[in-house]
Records
---
Amino acid sequence: MKAGLTTLITDTPEAGFALAVKLSQKGVATTQTDPAIRKALRPSYAHDANSLIAVSHVVATHFQTIAAANDYWRK
Ligand code: HEM
């Protein structure tokens, strides 16, 4: 099944992780709707270790949800 915002079900953990990143980015774009502002702010998060750790945490939280929804890809 194709990963997308219509389903949390993915074929592999790797695809699940990609979906977690996508959901995280969607959260940012929903919060700050102006792409010019996102572009201007990108260098500050991309060059700040603590911002990158915060990004990683948000992705990890989404990944937990997705992994649970996929029964941890046990099958
Ligand atoms: C690019 C993830 C937060 C603005 C990217 C990329 C990823 C990513 C994976 C592609 C990186 C690459 O190809 O080198 C995330 C995640 C975030 C987050 C998971 C938060 C949980 C933010 C924030 C901003 C931002 C807070 C700005 C306010 C951008 C911009 C790009 C980018 C402008 C370049 C897009 C492009 O060139 O098409 N982000 N990011 N992101 N991010 Fe983020």
---
Amino acid sequence: KQENLILPKDFPQLKNDTFLRAARGEEIEHVPVWCMRQAGRYLPEFRESRAGKDFFETCQSPEACCELTLQPLRRFPFDAAIIFSDILVVPQAMGMDVQMVAGKGPTFPEPLKEPEDLQRLQVKVDTAKELGYVFRAITLTRHKIEGKVPLIGFSGAPWTLMSYMIEGGGSNTHSKAKRWLYQHPEASHMLLKMLTDVIVEYLLGQVAAGAQALQVFESHAGILGPAEFKEFSLPYLRDIARRVKDKLKEAGQDVPMIVFAKDAHYALEELSQSNYEVVGLDWTIDPLSARERIGGKVSLQGNMDPCALYAPKERISDIVKKMLEGFGTRGYIANLGHGVYPDMEPENIGAFVEAVHQHSKQMIKQ
Ligand code: 1CP
């Protein structure tokens, strides 16, 4: 809808900035908490809103994205919201067809096969034109959220997007995409660079639209070994944060950035020196050892095993307490180590949020 284009940016005042303070390592009264995929199929109201509608058409509707983003906040006292969208809107903006196939997940009917296929991609992407619907969703949501909590924008990281563009969808081995790294390293770097350029513009557009923090998802980091990660992921993650920050600084803006490189615990030290304020962790790393390895350099986010949400509520509370004791309450944002699954009990997500708030308040008081 065109009228959203001109929504004013005089947003309601932020009432709960705990998440932003924790991202910067500042003092807080309780540990902030949100959940990856907090807007998702585990909520009956989400299933109802999404029923019978095409996934990417939903992503293209600012009103639908706004509603789905707000749904979890009506149930639980989360300290942040993440805009409803998907990482695969970036390959779409570069000219690739992506469809959501029921029972299979996102699918590219014509994935990249050989380096020549890079010619099919749009190099100079006008993000305002191709991804303006995401920006409008963010602006609308910033108004409708009424300053309750900060709104997080996000993007997939270059390697994760590259792997989808070559695999054509989800994969266990990612061997088609990894083949490129070993057979076509130059073309791989070319593609990663193209993606980086679009992602930088995309993230800046999200901030201009009203995003108050940014998360970069390198969900497929774990399929790379340390050497490949250092060559094909880390430099681009660093470049994204540096370029976004340089541009924001020029405008006098300061927006915390989170990097979530799933299963990349082998690169924790490097990630903590990659220009991001916050490093997100999956559940395969022990909180205390993560804290010891990075010192006080960055804030940490994570990392309860999402499957712990299948446990009874009292057990969830115990697990949360241990997690808080490991990370400490300063420079820490509680989250899961990955997204909520569709078969999880909404009540248990509520128990998780409450346990974080309750235990951390007590720990801070002592
Ligand atoms: O119809 C549906 O509801 C389908 C499920 C779904 C949802 C809820 C998909 C398909 N995407 C989303 C939304 C989404 N995706 C969000 C929004 C908000 C929130 O977190 O509350 C975000 C941040 C993403 C990001 C995303 N999409 C990632 C990175 C995070 C992660 O999970 O590692 C990835 C890898 C995707 C791709 C994707 N989109 C959807 C699916 C099922 C997948 C995974 C496909 C696969 O690899 O098998």
